[in-house]
Amino acid sequence: MKIWHQSFTVLSDLGAYNDALKAHFSRIARPGTQIDMHGMHPGTYRSNYPGSDIRHASLQYIHGLQFMMAAVEAQRQDYDVFAISTLPEPALREIRGLVDIPVVAYGESAMLTACMLGRKFGVLVFIDDLNDLIEQNAHGHGLASRFAGAMPVGFTFNDVLKGFEDPTELIERFRVAARKLIAKGAEVIIPGEAPMNILLAQNGLSEVDGVPVLDSLATWIKQAEAMADLRKFCGTKPCRTGYYHKLPEMDRVNEIFSFYGLDPLRQVS
């Protein structure tokens, strides 16, 4: 089984995070599952931090074009699953109506799994401006009644990069933020952004005061494996009727990419 992992970061800019992801994927994926890591095109952002852009709906929408092209490339290369590995889930609905391989998403996988572990889930994030988007995504996934809210975790992306060397302070700050979310009714905590998730998972933090802290990356991997298995053994495929699900002709998709000058990005990183 081959899974195309798609990050919202330029992975080549983030050595410690990139290495931590590789180690975690190797530990979680079952034997025979190959997870190939891909990031955004080098030079996408002004720095190694995408948050300055993705906190804006308009810029995130434009960057989502890279995810759409990556999905088409994953299908062309015969990957079994295209897996969006970022909480905002850029262009998720559009990608599912663009390619015919299973598409899983980090936030959706975490939310669905959380619903099996508690009545309500909450999300902790670096980027406060994402709170509205997370609430909208929970509603779009049909889970609004199970959503306890999203809150700032109290540290940043760059803090996490430093925390790979010594995570002690960040873990305690996470516990403090998690308790505030638990007080609002959360019975499962989702660590929002993937770098935060990998830091916590790497250090074995799986609960706070009896409330589970979900390893969102692990749920994403396991759902990807399950969707590929359902396709292979049961022939299970997505709905292909109506405006959101009917697939366009791929020749026309490629023509449109070319028309908009997106060809230089086709060789995704």
Automatic annotation (TrEMBL):
Q: Which Pfam families match?
A: Asp_Glu_race
* Annotated GO MF terms: amino-acid racemase activity
The record ties this protein, via InterPro entries, to: Asp/Glu/hydantoin_racemase (IPR015942), Hydantoin_racemase-like (IPR052186), Iso_Racemase_Enz_sf (IPR053714)
Q: What protein family does this chain belong to?
A: Belongs to the HyuE racemase family.
Q: What is this protein called?
A: Racemase
**Source organism per UniProt:** Pollutimonas nitritireducens
Traced from the root, the source organism's taxonomic lineage reads: Bacteria, Pseudomonadati, Pseudomonadota, Betaproteobacteria, Burkholderiales
